[in-house]
Write a structure and sequence with these properties.
The chain has two helices and four strands, in the order βαβαββ. The chain is α+β, with helices and mostly antiparallel strands and about 80 residues long.
Length: about 80
């Protein structure tokens, strides 16, 4: 179990920064981004071994081998 930065939000912020630089902004003038949205990651195998009940209505399942946008790693993802 752990927390991670929401990658979709992080990539949107990076794209905004690149857009500003391409429009002529100096990189030093762009404020540093502090993440505000995180994901709680729970490994289902570990949760089951600890006899934890995960409310599936509040979480989204991801399959092994899938990519970003809610589809990577074999665990549940719930935004905080």
């Amino acid at each position: 179990m752990g927390y991670a930065v929401d990658l979709a939000e992080l990539l949107r912020r990076m794209a905004d920064d690149v857009h500003q630089i391409l429009k002529g902004a100096k990189p030093g003038d762009i404020p540093i981004y502090q993440p505000t949205k995180f994901e709680l990651l729970i490994n289902l195998k570990t949760a089951k071994a600890l006899d934890l009940t995960i409310p599936l209505g509040a979480a989204r399942s991801r399959r092994p081998g899938d990519r970003m946008r809610g589809r990577a790693l074999p665990h549940l993802r719930a935004s905080c």
